[in-house]
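Q: Please design a sequence for this.
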């Protein structure tokens, strides 16, 4: 409790009427709040039953029935204030008072008191206005001291938190908010007041609070420090706004966006699969005539051998020499049949629409299968293949079906490019890039090359420089997507009149297998 210091000017009142009572009530309460002695020490009035004398007795002040008793040095009275308009009493005191005691007339004091009352009314009205405004605000508003004691709050806080003023005023903020008997621990419940002190500025935080009905709600908390002249914090203004509905709407929007992204991703994936299949069918169409011719040759050979064997049987000339011929013919028929079966199997495997199913892939074998399928097309277009593939190439993880589609596109494009110049050489080179831990495959043709202005558009969907009916411009776009999906890259180098090179790079671990996940 602070030590009370004596007032510098001790005051005595003369006149114990209602005016005196009013002054004692107001000044006593004010000085008690400020924590100092009331400067009024005594009241003088000949009527012991006057309201001012009675209140003075209750307050423990000196009371006298003769105003001249106030002159006694023991009471150290410095100022006498007249609270009665009787002129003769004023004149009496004026004549008899010691020079050390000053005198303030009733009229002069009344002017001061009325002025003070006017300002008091203005302050009271202003306080009522501010209180009305604060109570009308839906945000929670608290005034908290540096030692975390709540000294004021608005009606909205009391109503929504179902508290009375007695439940809140004078209590610690952690007792009211968190129902604990100690300050919030750092890490478990961060204290925004401590953060304001630490950072020396206002802060804004999002916090969750448990409401009386058990519901958790989100609040935007703003703490504003009020500073004293010496740089210390006098109090905190704690304003919190319920943003639960906003949070829910935000979460709903986020959920809808995630759902939209998921739907869009699914649509893109479906479109990508359709484009893969469409491009594959386009390549398959190009192969059809060539493959049919390729299959027709062994079938025609088998048919000729069957007819020859039938003629020998019909002529009834089945001697030892003819038996050896039969064995030779049957061996040739088996070889041609197996060749036909291999062509058909490879064609069916390429035509099959499959999902991305990573497994170990031998790129050299995959390229050889692709060349086998295109062998007749290469022969028809006068294209020779120069093989520079590394025989010790390691296997990588990827989709065999999709990578073959990429190679099919690159071989087909190179062949068509060289067809226009009457043939050429397709050089296929594969090698292991140890430093990058990846495999590189180059497809280099001796065709007419690609104009520089078209190179940047090559991988765009539906871009094509081929004649109508030769392609729809999906091949390289799909190839680019497949290589990207494998974590690799595809580049093109070309110069008009000097051919084109497509370079494919694939990391050895381009996609996880089910066992690796």
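A: Design:
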């Amino acid at each position: 409790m602070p030590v009370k210091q004596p007032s510098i000017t001790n005051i005595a009142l003369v006149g114990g009427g209602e005016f005196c009572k009013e002054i004692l009530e107001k000044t006593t309460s004010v000085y008690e709040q400020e924590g100092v002695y009331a400067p009024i020490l005594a009241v003088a009035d000949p009527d012991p039953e006057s309201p001012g004398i009675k209140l003075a007795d209750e307050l423990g002040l000196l009371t006298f029935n003769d105003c001249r008793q106030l002159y006694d040095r023991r009471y150290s009275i410095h100022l006498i204030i007249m609270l009665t308009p009787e002129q003769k009493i004023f004149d009496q005191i004026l004549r008899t008072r010691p020079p050390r005691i000053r005198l303030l007339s009733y009229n002069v004091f009344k002017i001061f008191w009325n002025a003070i009352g006017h300002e008091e009314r203005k302050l009271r009205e202003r306080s009522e206005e501010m209180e009305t405004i604060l109570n009308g605000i839906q945000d929670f508003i608290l005034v908290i001291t540096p030692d975390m004691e709540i000294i004021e709050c608005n009606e909205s806080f009391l109503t929504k938190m179902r508290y009375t003023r007695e439940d809140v005023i004078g209590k610690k903020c952690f007792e009211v908010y968190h129902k604990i008997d100690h300050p919030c621990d750092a890490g478990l419940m961060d204290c925004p007041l401590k953060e304001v002190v630490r950072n020396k500025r206002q802060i804004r935080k999002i916090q969750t609070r448990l409401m009386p009905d058990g519901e958790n709600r989100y609040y935007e908390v703003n703490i504003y420090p009020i500073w004293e002249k010496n740089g210390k914090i006098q109090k905190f203004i704690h304003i919190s706004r319920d943003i639960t509905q906003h949070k829910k709407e935000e979460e709903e929007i986020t959920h809808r966006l995630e759902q939209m992204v998921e739907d869009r991703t699914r649509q893109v994936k479906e479109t990508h699969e359709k484009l893969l299949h469409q491009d594959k069918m386009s390549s398959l169409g190009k192969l059809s005539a060539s493959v049919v011719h390729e299959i027709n040759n062994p079938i025609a050979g088998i048919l000729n051998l069957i007819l020859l064997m039938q003629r020998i049987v019909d002529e009834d000339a089945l001697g030892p020499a003819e038996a050896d011929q039969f064995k030779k013919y049957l061996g040739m028929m088996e070889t041609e049949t197996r060749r036909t079966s291999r062509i058909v199997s490879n064609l069916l495997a390429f035509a099959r629409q499959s999902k991305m199913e990573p497994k170990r892939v031998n790129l050299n074998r995959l390229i050889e299968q692709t060349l086998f399928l295109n062998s007749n097309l290469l022969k028809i277009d006068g294209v020779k293949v120069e093989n520079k593939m590394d025989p010790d190439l390691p296997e990588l993880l990827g989709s065999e079906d999709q990578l073959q589609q990429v190679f099919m596109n690159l071989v087909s494009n190179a062949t068509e490019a060289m067809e226009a110049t009457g043939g050429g050489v397709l050089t296929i080179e594969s090698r292991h890039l140890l430093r990058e831990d990846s495999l590189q495959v180059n497809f280099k043709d001796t065709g007419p090359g690609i104009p520089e202005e078209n190179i940047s558009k090559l991988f765009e969907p539906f871009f094509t420089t081929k004649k109508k009916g030769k392609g729809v411009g999906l091949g390289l776009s799909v190839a680019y997507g497949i290589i990207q999906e494998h974590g690799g890259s595809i580049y093109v180098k070309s110069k008009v009149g000097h051919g084109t090179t497509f370079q494919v790079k694939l990391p050895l671990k381009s996609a996880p297998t089910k066992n690796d996940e």
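Q: Thanks. Anything notable?
A: Confidence is low (pLDDT under 50) at residues 30-38, 511-517. Residues 60 and 223 are 44 Å apart (CA to CA).
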